[in-house]
Design a protein that fits this description.
The protein is 2% helix and 42% strand. By secondary structure, the protein is mostly beta strands. β4 (85-87) and β5 form a beta hairpin.
């Protein structure tokens, strides 16, 4: 049971926002290894356990929350969630999830559907929308008035569509994969004027076209009545590039005519595929390059830091892609097993204005060790918090991990029309436990100026008396720009998954929380953004430039330091008058790697990471 002192502390303080120095997990936590046998995820998991009595959902006191519905079949994804939460510009919202209430084999499994009509969410659904057993739904609007859901069945897909949103009969159409495949784990998004295009990705599940599992792309320009592209393999994701594309290792985003999808796991590159013409042509960006190309689970590797099986993608109003990902460490063994490290902790961030990561085995290391390319509050933006402020993470219990692995994992990302970037993630949280495992809570952080300035505030969405004995996982941020942030997440009274035997089946609630943006904090800096440009080019070789526009005469100095804080170069520019000045910085003597460039303007300062190549 939870220590009484912890409960009293939470009740008395009642705070959800924290602004603390980062605390690195202890060596014992970081180096704890778990050996896993590699095997293909099963689409139709049964369960040998009975049913626990539903303990009920406690009242909410931190932020307004609505209970959208439940499921006892608690496996919603093998790694990253699909596109399940859609917000219409007019204010309506739709959320779908896999529901199943009859253990152990869940013959009633299918798509649960709920919507917000502008005033309230509807009563919790008691069953699926389909007439047959499905799983892994993905939702999209169709045209000006319709909507559709795609989900997988045992050997094919089921496409459910209706012409009037929020009401009417779903028309169900089977969709087969290529001969010999059993398509699984679909994702679907709309694009174009009035959402006339539909796009979906699906995994072949079985070996196809020279890959252990292949990623297949389909496109319709008439709302799903026909598919002019179906089950196509994008060339740069095929067998010439990757051994296989794993289960649920992809997520999609769209805005206007721009369509993008992100693919990544511990066993392959982190890849962005982007189209500006409704999926006609594609451009590939390797965000993180895997140190072991074509890894196939048969050979030994050193330990290396990697994407942890959870990735997130969104497009801002200028159609620039923003990416978040969990970080972990793995090691491949020769016997078909691998080691993972559930105590590794970090949420990474990247956007298309940033340099990409290398294939160095330490590139994604979140602790600043040699070879790391991760920089706090630049591309490393989330981690477990030192809630009690004692300078250490008090996580001494067994670490419960999911198929996305680390202490902090399962990110979701959203950029509003004011260029503020919001990231939510599930993070193992000290001070909340059931006597065996620490609970994960949903935390949020926000940055301004397209991710350039991250607020020092970390907000615990579940940090109040109502969620003391709740596990929060799978946050999903809505993509609508108003004065609130809308987030849906899964609450389980027990850490872990019943389908994996971690506990007996029990009701998991899908909660929608409304959070005023002004309670989350925005990244700020003493120097106004308009007075100093970002360094350019970045990455650089021999020189870096930036412009500065003082509002009054001021002394300007620039320092370049390594990530350990050692000053390597100093440039004094003297007193600069009001107006715009272009500054040149000689970097020809610096070795390749990341550095911090700090501009001192009188008593104020502003720091940017730069990459020298």
């Amino acid at each position: 049971m939870k220590k009484l002192i912890t409960i009293v502390l939470v009740m008395l303080i009642g705070l959800q926002a924290w602004s603390t120095d980062r605390v690195i997990p202890s060596k014992d936590i970081r180096q704890k290894a778990v050996k896993i046998k590699h095997q293909r995820p099963i689409k139709d998991l049964g369960n040998p356990y009975g049913v626990l009595e539903n303990p009920g959902l406690k009242s909410i006191v931190a932020y307004p929350e609505a209970d959208l519905g439940v499921t006892q079949n608690d496996l919603q994804t093998n790694s990253t969630l699909g596109n399940r939460f859609y917000m219409y510009p007019e204010g309506q919202m739709v959320f779908v999830w896999t529901i199943g209430m009859t253990p152990t084999n869940y013959p009633d499994r299918g798509t649960a559907y709920n919507y917000w009509d502008g005033t309230s969410w509807q009563p919790a659904p008691i069953g699926r929308i389909e007439s047959t057993r499905t799983g892994w739904p993905s939702y999209a609007p169709v045209g000006t008035t319709g909507e559709a859901v795609i989900a997988h069945r045992a050997t094919d897909l089921l496409f459910s569509k209706r012409e009037s949103r929020f009401s009417g009969t779903w028309v169900q159409t089977p969709i087969a994969g290529p001969t010999g495949t059993e398509p699984a784990w679909p994702r679907m998004i709309p694009s174009g004027t009035d959402n006339q295009y539909l796009h979906y990705l699906v995994n072949s599940y079985t070996e196809y076209n020279g890959q252990g599992m292949a990623l297949l792309y389909s496109r319709s320009s008439d709302g799903g009545q026909s598919w002019e592209v179906q089950n196509a393999i994008i060339d740069e994701l095929g067998p010439d590039y990757y051994y296989e594309i794993g289960a649920d290792a992809y997520v999609m985003a769209s805005r206007g005519e721009t369509v993008a999808y992100l693919v990544g796991s511990p066993w392959m590159d982190l890849v962005l595929m982007k189209s500006n013409d409704n999926g006609q042509t594609w451009q590939k960006t390797i965000i993180w390059q895997h140190p072991y190309p074509f890894y196939d689970f048969t050979y030994v590797t050193d330990t290396f830091y990697c994407v942890d099986n959870s990735i997130a993608l969104t497009l801002d109003k200028d159609n620039m892609a923003h990416v978040a990902f969990g970080i972990n460490k793995v090691q491949g063994n020769s016997d078909g097993t691998y080691n993972l490290y559930p105590g590794v902790d970090g949420i990474g961030y990247w956007n298309e204005s940033r340099p990409t990561f290398s294939d160095n085995k330490m590139a994604l290391c979140p602790y600043g060790f040699e070879g790391s390319e991760m920089i706090d509050n630049y591309n490393l933006i989330g981690w477990s918090q030192d809630v009690n402020g004692n300078g250490q993470l008090d996580i001494t219990l067994d670490i419960m991990f999911y198929r996305s692995i680390g202490l902090s994992t399962m990110p979701s990302i959203y950029v509003d029309d004011q260029d503020n970037v919001y990231v939510a993630y599930a993070s193992t949280t000290e001070g909340y436990d059931n006597g065996t495992n620490n609970f994960k809570h949903i935390w949020m952080r926000v940055a301004s100026n397209k991710g350039e300035l991250w607020s020092g505030t970390f907000t615990d969405i579940m940090g109040d008396i109502s969620h003391i004995f709740d596990e929060g996982i799978w946050p999903q941020l809505g993509q609508l720009s108003d004065n609130n942030v809308y987030l849906i997440y899964n609450v389980d009274p027990h850490p872990g998954l019943s389908v994996d035997g971690d506990h007996d089946p029990v009701d998991n609630h899908q909660l929608c929380v409304t959070i005023p943006k002004d309670q989350l904090g925005v990244g700020t800096n003493d120097i106004e953004l308009t007075s100093i440009s970002k360094p350019f080019p970045n990455p650089a070789t021999d020189k870096i430039f930036l412009s500065i526009s003082p509002k009054e005469p001021v002394n300007i100095c620039i320092e370049i330091t390594n990530l350990a804080g050692q000053v390597l170069k100093r440039f004094d520019y003297g007193n600069k008058t009001v107006g715009t000045h272009l500054l040149s910085i000689n970097t020809s003597s610096l070795k390749s790697g990341y550095y911090l460039l700090t501009i001192y303007s009188g008593a104020e300062k502003l720091t940017y990471p730069v990459l020298i190549r």
